[in-house]
User: Which sequence fits this backbone?
């Protein structure tokens, strides 16, 4: 698709734009999930302690990815809004500000996280797995810039509708990671540290490729030449108004994982964390189409809001939710029916074989989680797209940190349902929180339409 065709696509029919943006994004997310899954599968061969260590590091890694994705979401939203209002010089400037932020913020957080890594793991209750967890975490977080920059660069391509190259860059990362994992872990005998090095090297390749397209080949619709950079503190603020809430949402998910892991340890020990970690990998795999839809909504909502078009905003929100529920029903059924086979991929060695029945049971219950997600995700992403990051943050805060943890505690400890109670609480909390977010989004769209209609009436 040509550069101008990309812009015509994201400024045209919202339904077509969402599908055309979402499908490549789904593929990208699928590839990312595959290489994350590959990490878990290969690490599972090292035993339950190694898999549990990944479970403790995953919340921290989510923060790492959240930094890049948060700044990327902020830049994506701002670029899309400027494209919607046909202010292309400011769109160029917004992209350059996003890159600047990726450099500064990643350097700051690299130092902070590396210095306090051990106390963080101790506070998380890593226990006997802390040594293994450190081997993985120091490498991953030492190269934070790679992941932050990759998230921002990818968002620039998405903001102008160029999903083809955004997908190619991610594909390179995923394929290389899947190839390098067994080599670094087993052939080079680096163990869990090998998984970390494979991830870092693979992500570096995508950064190199995207940098070439932006400054070597220079054929984006946006012009990222340094001459187009005009520092504006207001632009930094605008990006961060989405980036900070978006990153905090990732931290909320990490805190949720820590709380859930703590509950699991109290009820059934670190083995329960290994089971939950493995089963949630499958859940995350099933969530890929929903996240892909949500990312598409972010861009389309930003363009619609920038253009002052409440009808397109409503269409994008409604259509994405309907499509999301349809996909979730299919995936939830598949997870339930295939739970035993899915569990077997984490139990292919003698060290992890005993986990299979428990993982299968967890996957069966958590298949319902996929059905509880669509309306909440689409509402949060719509708010991010229009630059209302705080709204999105509040929805996530209510859904995950408050409702999911409270319901999980009540069901597991007060009702005495144990592990099943934790899973049930997470599912119910997600659905109730998402429903509240959906209602809030519809109220906002209605008010936006009133304001827009009033402006047009005054012009007439």
Assistant:
């Amino acid at each position: 698709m040509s550069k101008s065709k990309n812009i015509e696509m994201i400024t045209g029919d919202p339904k077509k734009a969402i599908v055309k943006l979402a499908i490549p994004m789904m593929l990208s997310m699928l590839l990312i999930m595959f290489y994350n899954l590959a990490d878990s599968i290969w690490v599972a061969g090292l035993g339950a302690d190694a898999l549990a260590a990944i479970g403790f590091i995953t919340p921290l890694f989510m923060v790492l990815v959240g930094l890049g994705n948060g700044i990327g979401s902020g830049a994506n939203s701002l670029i899309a809004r400027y494209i919607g209002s046909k202010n292309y010089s400011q769109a160029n400037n917004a992209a350059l500000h996003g890159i600047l932020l990726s450099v500064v913020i990643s350097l700051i957080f690299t130092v902070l996280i590396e210095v306090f890594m051990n106390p963080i793991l101790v506070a998380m209750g890593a226990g006997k797995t802390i040594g293994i967890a450190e081997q993985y975490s120091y490498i991953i977080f030492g190269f934070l810039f790679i992941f932050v920059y990759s998230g921002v660069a990818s968002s620039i391509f998405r903001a102008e509708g160029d999903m083809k190259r955004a997908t190619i860059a991610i594909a390179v990362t995923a394929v290389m990671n899947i190839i390098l994992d067994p080599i670094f872990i087993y052939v080079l005998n680096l163990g869990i540290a090998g998984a970390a090095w494979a991830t870092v090297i693979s992500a570096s390749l995508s950064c190199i490729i995207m940098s070439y397209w932006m400054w070597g080949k220079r054929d984006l619709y946006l012009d990222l030449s340094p001459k187009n950079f005009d520092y504006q503190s207001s632009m930094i603020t605008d990006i961060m108004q989405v980036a900070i809430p978006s990153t905090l949402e990732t931290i909320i998910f990490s805190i949720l994982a820590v709380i859930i892991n703590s509950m699991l340890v109290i009820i059934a020990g670190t083995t329960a964390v290994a089971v939950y970690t493995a089963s949630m990998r499958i859940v995350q795999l099933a969530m890929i189409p929903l996240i892909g839809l949500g990312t598409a909504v972010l861009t389309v909502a930003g363009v619609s809001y920038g253009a002052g078009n409440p009808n397109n905003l409503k269409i994008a929100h409604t259509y994405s939710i309907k499509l999301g529920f349809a996909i979730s029903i299919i995936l939830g059924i598949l997870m339930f029916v295939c739970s035993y086979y899915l569990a077997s991929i984490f139990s292919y060695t003698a060290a992890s074989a005993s986990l299979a029945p428990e993982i299968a049971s967890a996957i069966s219950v958590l298949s319902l989680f996929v059905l509880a997600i669509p309306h909440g995700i689409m509402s949060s992403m719509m708010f991010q797209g229009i630059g209302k990051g705080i709204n999105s943050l509040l929805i996530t805060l209510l859904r995950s940190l408050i409702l999911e943890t409270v319901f999980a505690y009540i069901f597991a400890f007060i009702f005495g349902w144990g592990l099943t109670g934790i899973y049930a609480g997470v599912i119910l909390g997600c659905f109730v929180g998402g429903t509240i977010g959906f209602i809030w989004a519809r109220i906002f769209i209605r008010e936006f339409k009133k304001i827009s209609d009033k402006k047009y009436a005054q012009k007439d």
